[in-house]
């Protein structure tokens, strides 16, 4: 099944279930939000998020280094080169915008949630913002997903404890972790401190079990590394970083 949606490239990976706050100020994405606001409130206001492989989340808006005479990049493909599909990773996630609030200066405050994985088939740059033809990807459980999820949760709790200890703060035990294997796999993928290529690899795993197996190896390796580190940056386990855009 294919679908065409507005495309929002970011320097981060969005997973199903992850909350995504956006501060939208570039004109191409402001145009996207104005278009989404035309959708009735009772219907989903959907757009697709893909991680940038090669390019810039925010296009240059003024001359700068290394060439101070370079002209600012404009238009829907600004920062992504002549063939934007090559600038993006091939698997992304549909986002459902629960809140789109326009500020007095014309910028937008957006709060969206990842819903479904999609494969990027093509990109259309003929309008004021990028749109893409996307193929929805089913989430297959794979073999032994339930048992793997239990092992990942045990390792993830140890990982959390190590993070809390490295930051010299106590770990809150009030929040209940899920037990559905696919939900576990996405929560852990989003919460771990990993680089974008590794998170992208987890997003595009062929099934839940494969993602959980990968996460189990990563958790054991990262927990071992944390033992030797004096401190770590803070992270939030349910929200991604607010985009500059």
UniProtKB/TrEMBL annotation:
The keyword Cell cycle does not apply. GO terms for biological process: proteolysis. InterPro entries: Lon_prtase_N, Lon_prtase_N_sf, PUA-like_sf. The keyword Transcription does not apply. It comes from the Bacteria. SUPFAM superfamilies: PUA domain-like. GO terms for molecular function: peptidase activity. Pfam families: LON_substr_bdg. Residues 5-223 form the Lon N-terminal domain. Keywords: Hydrolase, Protease. This is ATP-dependent protease. It comes from Streptomyces cyaneochromogenes.
């Amino acid at each position: 099944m294919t679908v065409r949606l507005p495309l929002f490239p970011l320097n981060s990976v969005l997973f199903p279930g992850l909350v995504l706050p956006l501060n939208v100020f570039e004109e191409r994405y402001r145009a996207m939000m104005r278009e989404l606001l035309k959708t009735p409130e009772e219907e989903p206001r959907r757009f697709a998020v893909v991680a940038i492989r090669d390019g810039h989340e925010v296009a240059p808006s003024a001359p700068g280094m290394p060439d101070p005479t370079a002209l600012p990049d404009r238009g829907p493909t600004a920062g992504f080169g002549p063939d934007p599909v090559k600038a993006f990773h091939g698997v992304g996630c549909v986002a459902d915008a629960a809140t789109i609030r326009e500020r007095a200066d014309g910028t937008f405050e957006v709060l969206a949630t990842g819903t479904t994985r999609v494969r990027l088939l093509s990109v259309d740059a003929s309008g004021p913002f990028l749109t893409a033809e996307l193929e929805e990807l089913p989430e297959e459980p794979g073999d032994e997903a339930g048992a793997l999820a239990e092992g990942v949760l045990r390792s993830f709790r140890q990982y959390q404890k190590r993070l809390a200890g490295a930051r010299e703060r106590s770990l809150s035990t009030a929040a209940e972790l899920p037990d559905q294997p696919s939900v576990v796999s996405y929560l852990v993928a989003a919460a771990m401190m990993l680089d974008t290529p590794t998170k992208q690899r987890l997003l595009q795993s062929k099934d839940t079990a494969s993602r959980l197996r990968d996460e189990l190896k990563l958790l054991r390796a990262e927990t071992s590394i944390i033992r030797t580190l004096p401190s770590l940056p803070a992270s939030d386990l349910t929200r991604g970083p607010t985009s500059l855009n």
